[in-house]
Amino acid sequence: MKRARHDRGAPSGSSVGLAARQIALEILMAVEHSRSYADAMLGTRVPALPPPDRRLTTRLVLGTIAWRARLDYELERFCGRDLAGIQPEALTIMRMGLLQIRFLDRIAPHAAVSTSVELAKRSHQARVAAGFVNAVMRRATREKVALPARSDDEVLWLGIAYSHPCWMVERFIDWFGQDAAERLMAANNEAAPNVVRLNLARASREQIVRRLQADGMEVEAVSRLPETATLKGAARFDSPAYRGGLFQAQSEASQLVARLLAPPGGAAVADCAAAPGGKAAHLAELVGRDGHVTAVDTNFGGLKNALRLCRHLGHRNVQFVQADTSLPLPLAGRFDCVLLDAPCTGLGTLREHPELRWRVGPNDPARMAVLQSRMLTNAAALVKPGGALVYSVCSLAPEEGQDVVRAFLDAHEAFHLDSHAANRDAFKGLLDTQGMLRTRPDLGGLDGFFAARLVRSA
């Protein structure tokens, strides 16, 4: 069995890392029962921990959620009962323990067992199950459960082997073919690269890279874009470089979306689903001080976060408007460029948001497409004659991407696809013959995004 890459730097001792495991357990319980998001909770709980515990907590949380189907398949056989009848916190502790035994090479099995039992003893809810946890974890160190025969049910085998719901396995096969679907699911279980956007409004790339290095961060890879940096190891958000507004966390695919819009310096730009503000800040940098960005979102809290981010990065050319893009907006024909990064299922971001694979259902892409189509129509009304509009989603579902765009073009003759974007070096190999952007984790390590650049006739 191939082990995941979630274990780099994780401590192996039973006493070392117990605090990290306790926090991981609390986050996992919140994600499971309150529909919180793991990355958001990690962002608030992890920074206070020392680096080894920080890494361990992150790997335990994301790995336990991502590998849940695989872990539960074994645990059902070790427990000899339906997992629905097991006390929820005890079940989560056993999932964490089995993850360490099966997937985290640098954690000794006896440490995984002892810390799992200790967590159960410390838990008010799971304390009575501590003996049961001990027996199951010890059995897991001695035995392994074979997967069902692949030849009997290919979809079931893939679903368990790569820990994805079977409906999602079937869709991936329909969309990409079986071999590519298997590569995609394997990539979804890998750690996403640590990518940041450099704030070139404050300094040059070379100057910021030197500041990152001085703060203990190493740039690992050269990107397509001058503002994109992939770090070797996690970004340090307690560093002078971050406090000075020299960078923000933002995936490379997300940065490509703003670049696809390609607003000229001095342009008036609208970001129609702006929260939490990453793309609005990027656009503010691209248009420069003579340009202007109007950040629109229906979520007031999200707009406040976007405002804080833009101020932190020093972008004063952004206006914030609370409005619902699913309804017509009173801003018709005012903007040179408009971005709609629409709400979606997030099926392209399962590395960062593994809980989505268990929350999204088979009917959700079509359901989201109804909202997305309405928002695209309203966003298009903001574009001046001769202006540009980019529609994007972080989803792999055709219903949310190309189908929405084609239906829009059929109903709006004033707009056409801008296929000339294919000539830009930054997008080489990422655009189809019509100029639509498509990225996937198994193709170059980028998050799964769809984007299309549309131009309104002059």
Protein model, in words:
The chain has 458 residues and is α/β, with parallel strands linked by helices. Helix content is 45%, strand content 14%. The protein has 18 helices and 12 strands. Residues 1-14 have low confidence and may be disordered.
What descriptive keywords fit this protein?
eight-stranded mixed sheet, Alpha-Beta Plaits, 4 domains, alpha/beta, N-utilizing Substance Protein B Homolog, Chain A, disordered N terminus, four-stranded antiparallel sheet, 458 residues, 12 strands
Secondary-structure map:
Blueprint: H1 18-34, H2 38-45, H3 51-66, H4 68-79, H5 88-103, H6 109-122, H7 130-142, H8 154-161, H9 166-176, H10 178-188, E1 194-198, H11 205-214, E2 218-221, E3 228-232, H12 240-243, E4 247-249, H13 252-261, E5 268-271, H14 278-287, E6 292-297, H15 300-313, E7 318-322, E8 335-341, H16 356-359, H17 364-380, E9 383-393, H18 402-411, E10 415-417, E11 437-439, E12 449-456
Parallel strand pairs: 5-6, 5-8, 6-7, 8-9
Antiparallel strand pairs: 1-3, 1-4, 2-3, 9-12, 10-12, 11-12
Helix pairs in contact: 1-2, 1-3, 1-5, 3-5, 4-5, 5-6, 5-7, 6-7, 8-9, 9-10, 13-14, 17-18
Short structural summary:
With 458 residues, this protein is an alpha/beta fold. It is built from 18 helices and 12 strands.
How many separate domains? Answer: 4
Strand content: 5-15%
Q: Could you describe the largest sheet, including whether it forms a barrel?
A: 8 strands, mixed
What's the CATH class of the largest domain, please? Alpha Beta
CATH architecture of the largest domain: 3-Layer(aba) Sandwich
Euclidean distance between termini CA atoms:
58 Å
